[in-house]
């Protein structure tokens, strides 16, 4: 696909010169690291020498050691392999630490400290370190030791209870929404800590819990529940307080219609479905009344929409300034002209598969999309380069560590 992305040196990347040691795995931590990498930080992903990140075995296989799942949150990083259960592996982390600004991890509660990689332990070596620890639950609470899994958190925070149709059982989100939001919240916290450190010179301990972030995702639905004193009704593709708003079936396919204001509803009735009598009915004159009388209004609106072809409806809605759009399949959306035009999906070389699809960063600075500087790395592709560049390790030292099982090097049959 056409990249539409400037070369890496065409932009002044805001985090250029910042170094991040990413000890995390799976989703939330790696996504935090990817955000920082997208903004120009040098992110070194530390992986187990044999199995690497767990997600190298999740999703559809690409080459020998990558998958679609892994590739979705590890672009713009370098990968080195270290066995953090070994004293030699931990010693290398300590040797690297003075040259790094941020450490990210998602070890279970107490796990980092057991390895010698806790905040107080690393702070003694790097006093201005920004240390981001991601876990399932509050580290000071009774559930600190529980592992955090997105699906479990979606259930426990009520997110599944607000998703899906009213007549169906609770439903999880199509993607790991809590993991994703936790990764984004964590990146925001790291950015804030970096900004503050520029002024104060102080490091910071950041603790992020999936449960906390899952509660935040409930948003206005959660506040509705508190005000009502009970669970609000689920509306599926519809909106709890705006009517008509959701997915509708035209004569030849589905579309989204989002009538957000009374003025838009007036135009919808008069110029889209050609029924001015509906907006003249006092039961539907305002959105508050439409929401209150949705059970009588929506069957009429749904029936009217079915009478028109989708393209005609979209044209009329667009002419009236009413938000609308097609409902596309995932493959159709990813290969469509809007995605291609934006350079949102790019095809990059892969040493085994030949090529691989990579999402481009969603951020635009000064009118340009941030670049993909590195494809999601193969396991340990950067071990030799990073450790020689930052620690001046010789080939002999690296090969001795490889023989001890502390790390793997590119070309050894496992790190490619």
Automatic annotation (TrEMBL):
Keywords: Transferase. Pfam families: CoA_transf_3 (PF02515). InterPro entries: CoA-transferase_III_domain (IPR050483), CoA-Trfase_fam_III (IPR003673), CoA-Trfase_III_dom3_sf (IPR044855), CoA-Trfase_III_dom_1_sf (IPR023606). SUPFAM superfamilies: CoA-transferase family III (CaiB/BaiF). Transmembrane segments: none annotated. GO terms for molecular function: CoA-transferase activity. This is CoA transferase. It comes from Achromobacter pulmonis.
């Amino acid at each position: 696909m056409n990249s539409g992305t400037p070369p890496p040196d065409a932009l002044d990347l805001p985090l250029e010169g910042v170094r991040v040691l990413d000890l995390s795995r799976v989703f939330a931590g790696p996504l935090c690291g990817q955000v920082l990498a997208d903004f120009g930080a040098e992110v070194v992903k530390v992986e187990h020498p044999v199995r690497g990140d767990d997600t190298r075995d999740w999703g559809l296989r690409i080459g020998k050691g990558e998958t679609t799942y892994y590739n979705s949150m590890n672009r713009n990083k370098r990968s080195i392999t270290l066995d953090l259960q070994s004293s030699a592996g931990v010693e290398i982390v300590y040797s690297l630490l003075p040259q790094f600004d941020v450490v990210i991890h998602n070890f279970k509660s107490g796990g980092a400290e057991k390895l010698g990689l806790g905040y107080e332990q690393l702070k003694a070596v790097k006093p201005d370190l920004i240390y981001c620890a991601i876990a399932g639950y509050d580290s000071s609470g009774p559930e600190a030791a529980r592992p955090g899994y997105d699906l479990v958190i979606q259930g426990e925070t009520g997110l599944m209870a607000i998703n899906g149709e009213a007549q169906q059982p609770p439903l999880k989100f199509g993607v790991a929404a809590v993991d994703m939001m936790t990764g984004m919240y964590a990146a925001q916290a790291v950015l804030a800590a970096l900004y503050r450190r520029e002024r104060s010179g102080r490091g910071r301990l950041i603790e992020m819990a999936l449960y906390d972030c899952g509660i935040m995702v409930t948003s206005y639905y959660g506040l509705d529940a508190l005000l009502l004193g009970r669970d609000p009704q689920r509306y599926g593709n519809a909106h709890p307080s705006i009517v008509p708003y959701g997915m509708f079936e035209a004569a030849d396919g589905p579309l989204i219609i989002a009538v957000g204001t009374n003025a838009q509803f007036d135009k919808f009735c008069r110029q889209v479905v050609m029924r001015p009598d509906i907006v003249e009915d006092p039961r539907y004159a305002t959105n508050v009344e439409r929401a209150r009388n949705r059970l009588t209004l929506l069957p009429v609106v749904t029936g009217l929409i079915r009478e028109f072809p989708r393209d005609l409806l979209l044209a009329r809605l667009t002419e009236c300034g009413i938000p609308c759009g097609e409902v596309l399949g995932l493959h159709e959306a990813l290969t469509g002209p809007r995605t291609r035009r934006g350079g949102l999906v790019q095809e990059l070389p892969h040493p085994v598969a030949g090529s691989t699809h990579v999402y481009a960063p969603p951020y635009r600075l000064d009118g340009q999309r941030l670049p993909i500087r590195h494809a999601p790395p193969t396991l340990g592709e950067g071990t030799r380069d990073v450790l020689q560049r930052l620690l001046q390790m010789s080939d002999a030292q690296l090969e001795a560590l490889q023989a001890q099982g502390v790390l793997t090097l590119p070309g050894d049959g496992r790190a490619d």
